[in-house]
Design goal:
The structure is a homodimer of 230-residue chains. The first copy, chain A, is an alpha+beta fold. The first copy, chain A, contains nine helices and four strands; from the N terminus they run βαβαββααααααα. In chain A, a hairpin with a 2-residue loop joins strand 3 and strand 4.
């Protein structure tokens, strides 16, 4: 049954069969790989076509997106819901007594920060590669997007003042927030927020992040290799 | 302590002291009022200034937004986190065995649908009232936003096929999704999705929604009255 989010056995992470270089490193299966590595949980990877979307994919994920996490005969989508599900199984990603705060910051990362930071990243990408994105947005639109993103980054910086992690201890909320911020940061989006750049560096220095990123990039390398005629 | 999300006593819903007519009915405290009415839980209302943001407000909510739910000495922000917190207290908003599915659809409403529908609603508002929003967006941008919204609405329509509610029974996920969709629908955004319009009508016909909306609008009426010099 789709969506119950429980079940037993080795979890299966569903991601795309291939993506262009431009988005490698930022496909949202990274968050789930990272969480699974933090938990020390082995997992398998299955793929769905990037496009056109298959009926099987749309049956699992009505928006045709990834990631999806399958465990036994259960299947769960939305990276935030998967992170919360994995976190709720123990205290490694949800410290004792912190369920409310972790949930709050997980939603904040995906709802209050990512929409503005992702919009800015997309506009910057469209400026660099108008041949892929259709048209380069006018400068005043990019400036407007940057301003909206900065307002949200100010809020995160305020919340992180004097602490290493959002809720005090490392949690699933930091996986979501650092994953959102590092994508903006890779394009220079944290230039006015050095504290956030330090936070991202702290998060991405974790061995579990490095293992997850290595596996994420190896997946695309293998996809490239499979495309080369024998 | 901010963010632990537990506590005892009558919950206090924090919303703005006043908002312009344009956004009355769609301020996100509505979702929380609705959930509290579904649960039959009495609550009190406190306010923060719409602007400029007070230090007290920013200490509770680093982005200067509402709603915030305070219970005892605990305080929680992000409407998704508050809904999940309220839902997890019983089965009225999270049917037995449906925690994964409810969480998944709650994130889907706020993460996969609202960013695109809200962007469209904002552009339409800017077109109608450029004197408030700075400038009317060009038609091709509104069309692009409509197309992105429609793709997500297609996904929700697919998931609702053959069922009244997202996870089978009414849940917190329906509060979030119907609240997102009704705002787009009020501006004609569900014209190509009659099934979603029926879903919104079903959700907003619930007595708890009606009570919540009455209280929401009465709050702004009282705010207007307080502004009139005696």
């Amino acid at each position: 049954m789709t969506g119950s989010g429980t079940g037993t056995g080795t979890p299966v992470l569903v991601t795309y069969d291939w993506v262009p270089d431009l988005v490698r490193g930022s496909v949202r299966d990274m968050r789930i790989r990272w969480a699974l590595e933090e938990l020390g949980r082995p997992y398998r990877v299955e793929t769905v076509p990037l496009g056109p979307k298959s009926a099987e994919h749309l049956a699992m994920q009505p928006f045709g997106q990834v990631p999806i996490l399958k465990t036994g005969d259960h299947s769960l989508f939305e990276s935030g819901a998967i992170l919360l599900h994995l976190a709720s199984e123990g205290t490694a990603l949800m410290p004792e007594g912190q369920a409310g705060a972790v949930t709050q910051w997980l939603f904040a990362a995906l709802n209050s920060v990512e929409p503005s930071s992702f919009a800015w990243v997309l506009m910057r990408a469209a400026k660099r590669a108008p041949e892929i994105f259709g048209a380069a947005p006018p400068e005043n639109q990019i400036d407007g997007a940057a301003k909206r993103m900065r307002a949200r980054l100010d809020g995160v910086a305020r919340a992180l003042q004097g602490r290493d992690w959002l809720t005090g201890q490392f949690s699933a909320a930091d996986i979501a927030m650092a994953d959102v911020l590092r994508v903006a940061g890779a394009d220079g989006g944290l230039g006015e927020h050095p504290g956030l750049a330090v936070y991202v560096a702290r998060a991405t220095a974790r061995p579990a992040f490095r293992r997850a990123m290595d596996a994420h990039m190896a997946h695309w390398d293998a996809a490239d290799a499979a495309r080369v005629p024998a």
